[in-house]
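*** Protein under study ***
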Amino acid sequence: MEKIMNIHTWNLKAILALLLLTLLVGLLPAQQAGDYRTKWAWGTFSDANIWEVHNGSAWVSAHDAPASPFLGTLYMNHTLVLDRSLTISNRLLMAPGARMEIVNGSKLEITADAYVALNEVMVNAGAQLENYGSIVSIPNGGNITLQYQDTNAQPAVLLNMASIVLNGDNQSWTYSLDMRDRAVLISGENASISGTGSFKTTDQHVRFEIANQGGLDEAVSLSGYRYVGPAHYLFNGTQPQVTGQLGERNFSITIANPSSVSLQHNVSLNPWENATVRVMPGARLRLQDYVIISSDWGNASFHLDPGATVSTAHPDGISSEEVNQRIYIGAIQTNQSSYSSQANYVFDGTTIQQSGNFVTEPDPNTVNNLIVNNTAGLVLTNPITVTGTVQGAQNIQGDYTLPITLSSFTAVPLSGQSV
């Protein structure tokens, strides 16, 4: 009886597995005339000999490589070297074990309505993967590697303007998103790289250009292992942004968002490679109560350009005073600093603040707009000339002047006096 029950149980499992397989096969896209698939284990994309094309009833040898833009379904079952640019406007379906290597000078573009089932893609230096559609990893697959940049090539670039889902391959020696030396990730305002996969950069000058409101953490929200080394950052959104959690000892941070970019933690700069933080004209950096810091005797710097805005809630404000070739007090503790006299300065702490002994140029002790949102008060360390406007004057303790330009006036002499 027990043996009969075991046979029945086995039969039931087999039937269920067969039904599931049938269901999955039914969900696969039907092959149509003009679809392509690879024939053997390795080849170059532009070589027609590695391709089969569906003629409407059967697979036959192709006379030409797939066209670009490709409007059908591309079944990729093997390793391919993409030696020319390709636009996918419908579907690219990679089988387990399939791998695409995009070589220098080539670009793989996924259009807005296209879909990619991803196993493994390697983007070499000088190559690009551009996603405007949907990329989803297959089970136990889903790796994107941005390769090392050599001295004679452009960097490997991943431009993501839509959705990438990477769930990893369950291998400890690979990473779902692997950014190597000088690789570049460009993330659009509504783009995301999500899933249960892992994320790792090297420590050698990888670069992020981020428009996401949630900063780096929204651009790459993979929930697996995560390591972000020293990097270059450009924040260029149009809505208020936060930085997210950046790595340590960064090489550069450029603020180009006219709405604002807010720090979410203290930020450290590499003190030995001329690291910089720059707030571009028209952009705004909100330091909140965090600090940008370097090390003694280094060469990291901070630059506030004309027309830019910086705000701080730090009790000691902003300073230019150095000890051991580093600013030792206030919100910006780099080795050098440059504060424009045509920039805007905002103090928005909740306890009484000092403005700090910051040096402006080309005009000393001069700012464009001075905005004091701190109702607890701001103490001006030095008298300040304001060439624009003052907001929150009632919260200021100290001397400031507003230049007055008189285009015309009528002089009225007092009794017994002359003009």
Remarks:
- The longest helix spans residues 2-27.
- The CA atoms of residues 12 and 134 lie 37 Å apart.
